[in-house]
Every structure is written in C-alpha cells, then in structure tokens.
Amino acid sequence: MSERNFMTLKFASRSENESFARVTVAAFVSQLDPTLDELTDIKTVVSEAVTNSIIHGYDNRTDGIVTIFAEIEGDTVMIQVEDEGSGIEDLDLAKQPLYTSKPELERSGMGFTIMENFMDEVDVISTPSKGTVIKMKKRIESKKALFN
C-alpha cells in the first residue's frame, strides 16, 4: 500500500502570493525526487492556476482567498487550486487557446492549455458567482528510477 501525504495552503488573493504558492507546492512535491523538468512543470501550472484565480476569479481584489490542496499518493501528485470568485461563464470558450477575458491586461490566454500540456489530467469545475476548482494530476518519474 502506498503512502499518502497531503498539505493545504490558504492565502489572500494578492499577486505577490503567487510565487509563495509556487515554491511551497514545489517544496512539497520535491519529496518524490522529481526531475528538474517535472518540478518546473509543477511550478508553472500552480502559477497559472493561482494567477487565474487572482486576476479572473477575484478581478484583482485582495480580499479573496485562494486555497491549494496538494496530495501525494505513491508516485502521483494531485494539486487542487480553488477560489470563491466570479466563476467562469463559458468554460469551453475559456479553455480555447489564446482566449482571454482580459485582453487589456495583455494576457496570453494560454493558462488552461499550459496546464493540460504539463499535467497528465486536468479537470475544471466552475460555477458562475461561486468560484472555480482546478484539479490536476501528474505521475512523477523519480530521478532515482532513471539511474537504476
């Protein structure tokens, strides 16, 4: 039976907390001894999800709360980023590459595409006026296994 470990992180919806969230989740995932590329992928998706929560979910309001739940089971990491912001009206449209609801902020519109390319599974659940939950999974190929 594989060991299960988890962590929960809650923080204010302030853009300066994005790097804190990214580094915290990366430190947690490091116990799986990921490759540098895997760790970079994890940091990138956490950054994208948190930034989406702050910019789109809370419209840059600093009074919201972003919650990250991360869980390790065996060689798989599950990361969940959630907010109680505005939610997404049209999820299919929001997932289209290059679509952004904030073109005035020079957003690339690639957040969901990046998450889907860097993770094995991505599931987005959003309810307008209630918030968004992004669930992501990735199997980590331990560096130890690469050298054995």
Q: What do these coordinates show?
A:
The chain has 148 residues and is an alpha+beta fold. It is 34% helix and 28% strand. The chain has helices at residues 17-29, 36-57, 91-94, 111-118, 143-146, and strands at 4-12, 65-73, 76-83, 121-127, 131-139. The protein has a 5-stranded antiparallel β-sheet with strand order 1-2-3-5-4, covered by helices on one side. A hairpin with a 2-residue loop joins strand 2 (65-73) and strand 3 (76-83). Helix 1 (17-29) packs antiparallel against helix 2 (36-57) and helix 2 (36-57) packs antiparallel against helix 4. The chain is globular. The protein starts with a strand and ends with a helix.
Q: What are the main properties of this structure?
A:
single chain, 148 residues, alpha+beta, five-stranded antiparallel sheet, 34% helix
**Lateral strand order in the biggest sheet:** 1-2-3-5-4
State the shape. globular
Main sheet, how many strands, which sense, barrel? Answer: 5 strands, antiparallel
Tell me the number of helical segments per DSSP (H or I, 4 or more residues long).
5
Structural topology:
Elements lengths: L3 E9 L4 H13 L6 H22 L7 E9 L2 E8 L7 H4 L16 H8 L2 E7 L3 E9 L3 H4 L2
Antiparallel strand pairs: 1-2, 2-3, 3-5, 4-5
Q: Summary?
A:
With 148 residues, the protein is an alpha+beta fold. Helices cover 34% and strands 28% of the residues. The model has no long low-confidence stretch (mean pLDDT 89).
